[in-house]
Write a structure and sequence with these properties.
Blueprint (H helix, E strand, L loop, with lengths): L11 H24 L6 H8 L3 H7 L5 H4 L3 H11 L6 H15 L2 H16 L4 H23 L6 H24 L1 H4 L2 H13 L5
Helix pairs in contact: 1-2, 1-7, 5-6, 5-8, 6-11, 8-9, 9-11
Length: about 200
Amino acid sequence: MSTSPDSQPMGLRERKKLKTRGAIQQEALRLFIEQGYAETTVEQIAEAAEVSQSTFFRYFPTKEETVLYDPLDPVLLESFARQPAELTPIAAIRAATKEVFSLLSEAEWERELERQRLVILAPELRSALFDKFVDGMAMLAEAVAARVGRDPADHDVKVWAGAVIGVLLAAMTETMREGKDGLSDIPGNFDAALATLDNGLAL
């Protein structure tokens, strides 16, 4: 993924780690699509990515994590923190989402779409998915609390983070139901969902 002008360049070691993690995830997603999630083993993923199983587990503690790990999360939170202070939290998350999606190359975009499709549609991942949403809400609560000068444990902060995750989940689920054509408009669907939240969820 391209970096923004404000991003600090990574060292060689960090770039190698990102490349290895990306290669493992890419091969895992390819195998899941070709032969099914349940039918794919860690051994097969490691072999396809040309790493040992011990290396696999250094990057991903479980097979589930190769799908549930979202490489865009840290990039999105970094972009959110950089948004102008005069923006409301919702406006800032909308701007950050647009910025991050605009940085994806075509290959990265295709991989992310496949990952999101598996996250939503693979029944084997649904129980673990709840834990990921809880983790996501906690990360977002930390980020918005820092932005507005509140405690991450503040009730309103946690509700705000949960609301953002909720509308994005609704947008993603609806997009998956629309089929392949709908997948290309994930940025627009995400922004529309956040706009609905910004308007007070008025019906």
